[in-house]
Amino acid sequence: MPRLRLSKALLILAVAATAMVGVSCDHVDNKRLPVVPVNLMFWTQADWDTYGVTGAGQYRIFNKEKRTPAGFNYLASSYTGFGGVLLCSTFLGEPVAYDAACPVECRADVVVFINDNYEAECPRCHSRYDVFSLLGGCISGEAAEKGYGLQVYTVNPGRNGEYMVIYN
């Protein structure tokens, strides 16, 4: 009888160890891109209304080098990360921001776009990411196989009266 209990205990331990390995494989790696400064400010409510994301499911990509979106007032202190900043409004209307570069490709010139299913998709590897409810988590493609997610940036109200600040 003690041998049976020991075998049962070892079996339970083996199952638990296997489950823990499975959990670690589900972890999303969203820190694959080079660390590059991010700093975007919307100084007034009018700036936010014009260039921000004011409703559920809206999005916009900011890239200082490409001067997009057109007319946005980039300052010397403005930085838009590695591949640009993808600013989205979740389905609950909360602003979230990501680096627009695909973490599988790790190239500043390979940036995601929003497809017809409201998913961010890489034009090269075709990995897809949920940017409106899963915080940039991978849905399919090589990113899902490897557990890569989009780099997440912080979106907060500014300290000096500016409307929103996005930074890493």
The helix count comes to 3
Q: What is the fold-level CATH name, i.e. the topology? A: Rieske Iron-sulfur Protein
Mean pLDDT: 84
Coarse morphology: globular
CATH architecture: 3-layer Sandwich
> How many structural domains can be distinguished in the coordinates?
1
At the fourth level of CATH, the homologous superfamily is Rieske [2Fe-2S] iron-sulphur domain
SSE series? HEHEEEEEEEEHEE
Name of the CATH class: Mainly Beta
Poorly predicted runs of 5 or more residues: 1-25
Oligomer: single chain
What's the alpha carbon Rg, rounded to whole Å?
A: 20 Å
Give the strand content.
Answer: 15-25%
Distance between the termini: 59 Å
Number of strands: 11
Give the proportion of residues in helices.
10-25%
Q: Any overview of this molecule?
A:
By secondary structure, the protein is an alpha+beta fold. The protein has a single domain, classed as Rieske [2Fe-2S] iron-sulphur domain (Rieske Iron-sulfur Protein), CATH 2.102.10. Helix content is about 20%, strand content about 25%. The strands form two sheets. A seven-stranded antiparallel beta sheet has the order 2-4-5-10-11-1-3.
